[in-house]
Design goal:
By secondary structure, this protein is an alpha/beta fold. It has helices at residues 5-19, 32-41, 63-66, 76-81, 95-103, 117-131, 134-151, 177-184, 204-209, 227-230, 260-278, and strands at 27-29, 47-51, 71-72, 86-90, 108-111, 160-165, 170-172, 187-189, 199-201, 214-217, 245-248. The strands form 3 sheets. It has a 5-stranded parallel sheet with strand order 3-2-1-4-5, with helices on both faces.
């Protein structure tokens, strides 16, 4: 005897409900970029802990909020003790901790480093889905898209060559999120012109021989700058000072997407305005 269609549909609905993913109530993040998305999307009571990077002002943009929340140093013991039902991890997270979570069947979601704005937006939506916070994610995405639109120059505006020059001459090349942000804000990323590849180090000598129009450099520690940081204040840069515009672009804006994009494109738009103003 055939089952009535309505009964079949009802059973299918029950089956779907039975396999639906439960909303995470206690979440631990082990990555500074994921910390940032979590803080902007989650309800406070859902955040069991952030990564220890979230308490370092030079590593994150959310220190003020993060200082009011627990952290871990990424050890399996710390994470397990928090009894999370979801752990946000990246490929840079401790393999030992990730392995322990897998053995204990604790749900750990693995995220790649976003290489495009679209990748970043997809991560926001995925994290929000896991938390049952989709409306908060969409509101954040609206803010990001508005910031991207506001930072985009007119279509007939001249392109300016730019180099992101961080500690030890570290720079992002093509195929990175920063590269896309530079393009969107009216720059041509010339990092690969100096042999950096996708990510690499630019020799100070090569940059001085053929300087970009805009040099986007990180912040040097005021107390005890490292040898790698001293390249940012090397006297040789004075020789090309009249040919370039220097503007700040802190390390903490270079690696993360999510809500950090709002600050990143604002900094790049400001650098472009400064360079245009300084041009003859």
């Amino acid at each position: 005897m055939r089952r009535p269609f309505a009964s079949v549909v009802f059973c299918a609905v029950l089956a779907c409900a039975g396999t639906a993913q439960a909303v995470a109530k206690r979440v631990v993040s082990l990555n500074p970029c994921l910390d940032t998305v979590l803080v902007h999307v989650a309800a406070r009571e859902q955040i069991a802990a952030l990564s220890h990077f979230s308490h370092q002002t030079d590593a994150t943009t959310i220190t003020d909020v993060a200082l009011t929340l627990p952290i871990t140093y990424e050890s399996a013991e710390e994470v397990i003790a928090l009894k999370p039902d979801l752990v946000l991890t990246s490929r840079h997270s401790s393999p030992a901790t990730r392995s322990a979570l897998q053995r204990l069947e604790i749900h750990a979601e693995l995220f790649d480093v976003p290489e495009t704005v679209n990748d970043s937006i997809a991560q926001i939506r995925r994290i929000a889905e896991l938390l049952g916070r989709e409306p908060q994610a969409e509101a954040l995405i609206v803010r990001i898209e508005a910031a991207l639109a506001a930072s985009q120059p007119d279509s007939d505006a001249p392109k300016l060559t730019a180099l992101v020059f961080q500690s030890n001459g570290f720079t992002p090349g093509g195929g990175t999120l920063v590269d896309e942000l530079l393009t969107r804000t009216g720059f041509v990323n010339v990092g690969e012109n100096y042999g950096s590849g996708k990510w690499g180090n630019v020799a100070l000598e090569r940059m001085i021989i053929s300087p970009p129009q805009v040099l986007l450099s990180g912040e040097v520690a005021s107390d005890t700058p490292t040898w790698a940081e001293r390249v940012l204040t090397h006297p040789a840069l004075n020789k090309v000072a009249q040919h370039i515009t220097r503007a700040p672009f802190p390390d903490k804006l270079m690696y993360c997407g999510g809500p950090v994009l709002i600050q990143s494109v604002a900094a790049l738009a400001q650098a472009r305005a400064l360079a245009i103003k300084a041009s003859p």
